[in-house]
TrEMBL record:
Top-level taxonomy: Bacteria, Pseudomonadati, Planctomycetota, Planctomycetia, Isosphaerales
SUPFAM superfamilies: Arabinanase/levansucrase/invertase
UniProt KW DNA damage keyword: no
GO biological process, one term: carbohydrate metabolic process
Family: Belongs to the glycosyl hydrolase 43 family.
N-terminal signal peptide: 1-17
Protein name: Inverting glycoside hydrolase
PANTHER family, A to Z: ARABINAN ENDO-1,5-ALPHA-L-ARABINOSIDASE, ARABINAN ENDO-1,5-ALPHA-L-ARABINOSIDASE A-RELATED
Keywords: Glycosidase, Hydrolase, Signal
Listed InterPro entries: GH43_arabinanases, Glyco_hydro_43, Glyco_hydro_beta-prop_sf
Molecular functions per Gene Ontology: hydrolase activity, hydrolyzing O-glycosyl compounds
């Protein structure tokens, strides 16, 4: 029989690996948490929670939990994960032009490290931007994978005319174990079209990459999915669109109750959407079922211990 400490460690590893098909968002020992921003991202990190994955309630009267002055002083597209040591890692877009990505960490989502700028495209001085960064923990490699979208003028000339304002993005990545040293930046995914807003999830032995087709001419602006054997790829060809005729961006994915939930920003309609799937192939639009706080913008969904949510809710009204 395994000792209590070993059993506890195994339980922690299973919990960190992500939601199993049987996981229930109403579980007493975990909670669903959603990060987001408001307006142009001027005021910082907003948090919301849900008991069922459909109705989301702002925490702390929708007041921000973290502000940042790095880059252009914005905090757009905040993406959050909890690493294997229980530390929360947060990355975000700091501005419209190239600055790098914002980074901070926290044990409780209330007390944060000083925000830092990570210049992930310093070897690409012509890069125009660093948008919608995300971080994924690669258990096999015991490292964090950071990825984002950037336009490097002239790098993919065949699709230069397909974007808005001469933007022609692809997804780039680097890895780190400590957020101090990083591997050389590399191209993560080239789907053959202008693409932004990648997010990643693990599905058994494969890795799932959700992306936005950012093609403007002719208009696409939809979400697609690709699969790979590693979080660094290679990823296969993108699927047909998994969202409808409306314009969609900023996907974030989580699995519970045996169902994959992909939330996204229906940004031209100023509302949020949801598509669900049991097999990551056939998708059902459940956008009419979800309810988010007013002004909710591009963020990420994560499962956190209920004790963390209790602490977050205790700061309300301070």
């Amino acid at each position: 029989m395994k000792s209590a400490p070993v059993l506890a460690a195994l339980a922690a590893m299973i919990a960190f690996a992500g939601a199993s098909p049987a996981d229930d968002p109403k579980s007493d020992d975990s909670a669903l948490l959603f990060t987001s921003f408001r307006g142009n991202g001027e005021d910082g990190l907003h948090l919301a929670t849900s008991k069922d994955g459909y109705s989301w309630t702002p925490i702390n009267d929708d007041k921000p939990f973290l502000k940042s002055k790095i880059g252009d002083g914005l905090m757009r597209d905040p993406h959050l994960i909890q690493g294997p040591d229980a530390t929360f890692q947060l990355v975000w877009t700091t501005g419209w032009s190239k600055h790098g990505l914002g980074y901070a960490h926290s044990k409780d989502l209330i007390h944060w490290s000083e925000p830092r700028l990570l210049d992930v495209m310093k070897t690409e001085p012509k890069a125009r931007n660093v948008w919608a960064p995300e971080v994924f923990y690669d258990e096999a490699g015991a490292r964090f994978v950071l990825f984002w979208s950037s336009t490097i003028p002239g790098r993919f000339p065949d699709t230069d005319a397909a974007g808005d304002d001469d933007y022609n993005h692809r997804i780039y990545a680097t890895t780190t174990r400590d957020f101090e040293t990083f591997t050389p930046t590399r191209l993560l995914y080239e789907p053959g079209f202008n693409t932004i807003d990648a997010t990643m999830a693990r599905d058994g032995d494969r890795y799932v990459l959700f992306i936005k087709d950012e093609t403007r001419n002719p208009p696409a602006k939809n979400l697609r999915v690709a699969f790979g054997a590693s979080p660094l790829g290679p990823f296969g060809p993108p699927s047909p669109p998994i969202t409808g005729a409306y314009w969609a961006e900023g996907p974030t994915a989580i699995q519970f109750g045996g169902v994959w939930h992909v939330y996204f920003d229906r940004y031209t309609e100023h509302r949020y959407g949801l598509v669900t799937s049991t097999d990551l192939t056939q998708w059902k639009d459940e956008s009419d079922r979800v309810h988010f706080p007013p002004g909710f913008r591009h963020g990420s969904v994560v499962r956190v211990p209920s004790s963390i949510l209790t602490k977050l809710e205790s700061v309300a009204g301070r």
